Amino acid sequence: GEDVEQSLFLSVREGDSSVINCTYTDSSSTYLYWYKQEPGAGLQLLTYIFSNMDMKQDQRLTVLLNKKDKHLSLRIADTQTGDSAIYFCAEMQDRDDKIIFGKGTRLHILP
Amino acid sequence: DAGVTQSPTHLIKTRGQQVTLRCSPISGHKSVSWYQQVLGQGPQFIFQYYEKEERGRGNFPDRFSARQFPNYSSELNVNALLLGDSALYLCASSLVGRGDSYEQYFGPGTRLTVT
User: What CA–CA distance (Å, rounded) separates B82 from A83?
Assistant: First the structure.
């Protein structure tokens, strides 16, 4: 199947870490992505990880990949009000270049 | 550098009409993909074009068609519009096509409303 699953909502206090989780089903996935979408805007590519990697860090963002469990997570350190958005997990499958998206996790920042 | 641009930004059409959406990729990018994002959902893949050839097609009816021009810009056409076609249509560009287009950058989208 072509399913990418993620929880729909996450609330985090400003300054805390946010962890957004995702599971995917296609073992042939080559790249896994995190995109950010702010209200009324297009998608911003935050980061991506190749399927033979376990972890990737980029400033406040850390991506962890457990290929055995087909689980991907995005950790945002020191969450700020500007991080409030919908975060999409996505996978690119080996057989073609289409990207399969989850339904998105809405991150809400509490003061 | 300019990112991916799309036009128009908003569009209102009535059922049965036809619509054409336009996309200009990032300079130097040769591949364009189209996605449909219905409110509250993630984007769904419609087409990918590379070097003016269709390289991938999602599960959309034949009412949806696209093409890519020699300058790598692209148009998405939707005929016989239905209410369910109301969505944000996103264009993404990448440097190359099949097998290596893992960095796809999205435009701001065209919001289509069908009444």
Answer: 35
Q: Report CB contact under 8 Å: B104, A99.
A: yes
How far does A43 lie from chain B, in Å, by closest CA?
A: 6
Token pair in block for residue B65:
């068609």
Q: Which residues of A touch B109 (CB under 8 A)?
A: 41-42
Contacts A99 to B, Cβ<8 Å: 33, 35, 43, 45, 92, 104
Distance CA A1, CA A34 (A): 20
Q: B9-26: per-residue pLDDT in tens?
A: 999 999 999 999 999 999
Q: What is the mean pLDDT of each run of 10 residues along chain B (115 residues)?
A: 90 98 94 93 92 90 97 97 97 75 86 97
Question: Mean pLDDT per segment of 10 residues, for chain A of length 111 residues?
Answer: 85 97 85 91 89 91 94 96 96 77 96 87
